């Protein structure tokens, strides 16, 4: 999908989240088309120092013909941290994950960008969540090895990303701040030595342009205030966008004293003020038509980000059954998207599409055994034995409390890690035959997708991303004629 968008003149952006698991599981499904093996081979050819490690990944995960349906996947490395043997600063406690975790993240992110850039000269971007810290430096290095053009970062302030990009570009040993609770003010960071992985004596890597995903003028102004943390530009994401949203300024509760999510004018993004900062920006959330694109351009934006319309296209990667179910509900005018206050372990509001047999169904949610076997949204804390350990409010409640968490934080939490991997077609299964149920996220603006579906031939159940881009640009040209 990203390759087509970029080929047509847009900025095709792939997701860098959970690529280590996606790639290890896709290899176990037989690597249909051989694309991962082809990309891994390209990585080994460009960076011979990695070739042996990449070969070990293929030996461990690739299954010719794919594993049998329902069989458990071989788990990818957990990202457990150990103390780094070399320190860069006496004031910072340095930690690092194991070598397989590092190389798998590098290889998967390289491959995702490399495949998206194949066959055209357009720009390609990759998106990361600042909240998901452990894989980020290694994932970013992998994307940069593939000469990614843009990096967009949300779910937290990306103030430290420009420094990280600069260090990775020069293959310098570097550190990346790690948030650790219960640490009494002690500073922690992840350590990465690119030269030890890709070899020395190389020309600097291409530095991608950073797009900070923001929902407020205050954060945009802070990021733009100094050269060291200034991004290339901003993606202004309002509250109608899918996935995680910034919390509203005011907390609200229903009649049962349950927290609700209500956005008001106070949560609107001051586009004019951000425009005055003088950096390029794009509008996101509820932007999905040529009219939205024209209005964005009239406000000084460089363009728009359209996620929901893309999520329902044939190339999006959403599991076919879920896409067909969502499309069927949308055609019937019955597809609903709600903003849930407590679903995400991160504490941020999260958009949930109400689709049967997914975690949006209370019965499906209540029947799931709470377990945390993936851990992307875990939070780090300093254990009593001095280790950097991890906990998640979506895990088994007793286990979370044993680790120092508070019981009230576990209420209503959903394992988004397992749910979203299932939605992408890579569900975990268990020896008793239980298969992890999916969760689907979409934005609130569904009209553009609904309009595209109205004109489909009878035998087709969705549309291609090329049709979306062509239609939007053609309509925009007509408006300007």
Keywords:
481 residues; alpha/beta; seven-stranded parallel beta sheet; four-stranded mixed beta sheet; 18 helices; 18 strands
What is the straight-line distance between the termini? 29 Å
User: What would you report as the Rg, rounded to the nearest angstrom?
Assistant: 22 Å
Strand content: 15-25%
How many strands, which pairing sense, and closed or not: the largest β-sheet?
7 strands, parallel
Strand order of the largest sheet: 1-4-5-9-10-13-14
- The helix count comes to 18
Rough outline: globular
Q: What would you say this structure looks like, in words?
A:
With 481 residues, this protein is an alpha/beta fold. 35% of the residues lie in helices and 16% in strands. The protein has helices at 2-7, 19-28, 35-46, 48-61, 99-116, 136-145, 161-169, 194-198, 217-224, 271-275, 290-298, 308-311, 320-331, 362-367, 397-402, 416-423, 447-454, 465-480; strands at 12-15, 81-83, 92-97, 124-129, 150-154, 174-178, 180-181, 187-192, 209-214, 233-237, 252-253, 259-260, 281-284, 303-305, 337-340, 350-353, 379-382, 388-391. It has a 7-stranded parallel β-sheet. A 4-stranded mixed β-sheet has the order 2-3-8-6. Strands 7-17-18 form a 3-stranded mixed β-sheet, with no helix packed on it. α6 links the parallel β4 and β5. α3 packs antiparallel against α4 (48-61), α6 crosses α7 (161-169) and α11 (290-298) crosses α18. The longest helix has 18 residues, at 99-116. The model has no long low-confidence stretch (mean pLDDT 92).
